[in-house]
Design brief:
78 residues, alpha+beta, Translation Initiation Factor IF3, four-stranded mixed β-sheet, 2 helices, 32% strand
Length: 78
């Protein structure tokens, strides 16, 4: 995997705070500029993930929902 390849974190089936904790773990090993795609079905992720990203200085590039599954695209900013 290169920095251009997004890290995909599948947290479906897990409830708060697990999706955000898995996102945090993915970013712990990610380089600056790395994109992480988080997939979750916990409705609280709509609140938790944007808050986590803003608090840690990451940029939320996109958030989509399809059939109850949320997908977040977050980049590790400078």
């Amino acid at each position: 995997m290169t920095q251009a390849d997004p890290i995909v974190v599948d947290a479906r089936g897990h409830r708060c705070p697990v999706p955000t904790l898995r996102l945090q773990r993915a970013f712990a090993n990610a380089a600056t500029g790395q994109i992480v795609r988080l997939v979750a079905d916990d409705p609280m992720a709509r609140i938790d993930v944007p808050h986590f990203a803003a608090h840690h200085g990451y940029a939320l590039l996109a958030m989509t929902e399809e059939s109850g599954v949320l997908t977040f695209v977050v980049i590790k900013s400078l």
